[in-house]
Design brief:
Elements (H helix, E strand, L loop, with lengths): L3 E8 L9 H17 L4 E3 L17 H5 L12 H10 L2 E12 L2 E11 L5 E6 L19 H4 L9 E4 L2 E7 L6 H8 L5 E6 L12 H18 L3 E6 L2 E3 L2 E3 L4 E3 L5 E4 L6 E8 L4 H5 L4 H4 L20
Parallel strand pairs: 1-2, 2-3, 7-8, 8-9
Antiparallel strand pairs: 1-14, 3-4, 4-5, 6-7, 9-12, 10-11, 12-13
Bound molecules: 3-methyl-2-ureido-butyric acid.
The site of 3-methyl-2-ureido-butyric acid has 10 residues, from loops.
């Protein structure tokens, strides 16, 4: 089994609203070529990587909403990315807006896929923790309408064997939730792939700018360490039509340490040759789940959502 996998986080700079999918795909192909030249075998692209981060806009026309979604994958416009990756024997993670039409029922998901080096889609994930709000809020400084445009993912947090190793996926806001990583940790995950679009501004509250990047890394580093897994987090960064998004794409070791990090808010590739056995010692000691977990005390985690403090 492959002990080392060279993986690349392929950060994308801004995609302006008027920029077509074709241009985004061309930029991804350039990053893929760079990854190949550097010997990477797995490339992680951001959340909603084909378009601007459209949930910042209020869109009311259903046809216009659907125009931001993909009806098939690969589609005509993404096929060249699939072809290039297959030709080079590279696997990849891609985030996109998915329009699913089954049995006459239409659903909209914020999705990601893992594509194996042979070009086949081996896994699909649909975002579970949708942030933001459903209705346009005129008093908010920024709109974040993911709850309006997307249905809650219905696939849970599965893992898949890729390169003979156990890989999982999540998307953006999912990375802030311990449950995301632990559900995959309990399936022996060895590498979590995730893309994100994190605006510098919050819809509902103000906080110092530096906390944005701190919390971004804190949540991914904690998830990595507490489940002894690699985490590859890839941002879409920079200013999309004046709306700033943090970068900070990074590769995190099972020790919780960041081993590679993007320096810009532009298209940028960062890579690292990951020793996939590095997490083993933690999985056999501090995080030997079988020996140390006390599930008899964890019941409320899966049975209630809000916090209920004791009466005053
Ligand atoms: N795309 C996201 O899920 N963004 C959220 C913001 C809204 C907080 C994030 O967790 O980065």
């Amino acid at each position: 089994m492959t002990r080392h996998i060279k993986v690349a986080a392929a950060q994308l700079g801004p995609i302006q609203k008027a920029e077509g999918r074709q241009s985004a795909v061309s930029r991804m192909i350039e990053l893929l070529k760079e990854a190949d030249a550097g010997g990477a075998k797995l490339v992680v692209f951001p959340e909603l990587a084909l378009t601007t981060f459209f949930p910042r806009y209020l869109i009311e026309d259903p046809d216009e909403i659907d125009s931001w979604f993909e009806r098939e994958m690969p589609s005509a416009v993404t096929q060249p990315l699939f072809d290039q990756a297959k030709q080079r024997g590279i696997g990849f993670y891609l985030g996109y807006a998915e329009l699913d039409n089954k049995n006459g029922e239409t659903k909209h998901y914020n999705s990601s896929i893992i594509v194996a080096p042979d070009g086949n889609i081996v896994g699909k994930y649909r975002k579970v923790h949708l942030p933001g709000h459903k209705d346009y809020e005129p008093d908010y400084k920024y709109q974040h309408l993911e709850k309006r445009y997307f249905d809650v993912g219905n696939l849970g947090f599965p893992v898949w064997r890729v390169f003979g190793r156990v890989m999982g996926m999540c998307i953006c806001n999912d990375r802030r939730w311990a449950e995301t990583y632990r559900v995959m940790g309990l399936q022996g995950v060895e590498m979590v792939l995730l893309g994100y679009n994190t605006p510098w501004g919050n819809a509902t509250h103000d906080e110092p700018m530096h906390l944005k990047m701190f919390h971004n890394h804190l949540s991914m580093q904690a998830g990595a360490y507490q489940n002894a897994t690699w985490v590859v987090g890839t941002a879409k960064a920079g200013y999309e039509d004046g709306n700033g998004m943090i970068g900070g794409s990074c590769i995190i070791a099972p020790t919780g340490e960041i081993v590679a990090q993007a320096l810009t808010e532009e298209d940028e590739l960062v890579s690292y040759d990951c020793d996939m056995d590095l997490g083993k010692y933690l999985k056999q000691t501090t995080y030997d789940f079988e020996r140390h977990r006390r599930i008899e005390h964890y019941g409320i985690i899966a049975s209630q959502t809000g916090a209920t403090p004791p009466p005053e």
